[in-house]
Request: fold
Amino acid sequence: MSTPTIGVFALQGDVREHRAMLEASGVATAAVRRPGELSGLDGIVLPGGESTTMYKLARAFELFEPLRAAVRDGLPAFGTCAGMIMLADHIEGGIAGQETIGGLDVVVRRNAFGRQVDSFEEVVTFEPSWSDAFDFPATFIRAPWVEKVGDGVEIVARARLADGGVRIVAVRRGGLLATSFHPEITGDRRIHELFVDLVRRG
Ligand code: GLN
Reply:
């Protein structure tokens, strides 16, 4: 693969930040709002935002089923925060009728960290099987956490919380990667580079 092109779901969420991080990581990017814009992509990012709105807009723009089919057929995808919720097979705390693209056999709890801590920073430990381990300063905004992982889902990162709890905050299966937090707003490209690495490996 020469220069991969990674699409960014652009109906809602922090699209610009993801495109900037991806481009700085050496790939081309494209905004995805319509089903036709899925063709020719080597990967896709589902940004942070609001998963219920993303779901409704994806349905309204007839992007939901084509995106689900593309992911099912093996398109690598990286979901951050609301995007993690979109990639989860099962969600807790969703609104009535909220559906996901799915692909990751995990249970994700929306807004899991509680109202008092709408937004916070925490250093999380990454231990990806396809790269070296590192610590990452993560920004969580009304973030989900991963409550349960199914067979074949790799736990990539955990957060150690102030209350002593340990939570799963990054998971991966094949070319699907998801984080509870927002690596796109930190100026630190290491998580995007992990995804680009998965895309390049095919
Ligand atoms: N709480 C949001 C949701 O459920 C996610 C928040 C975010 O992406 N920062 O979709």
About this structure: Residues 190-201 form the longest helix (12 residues).
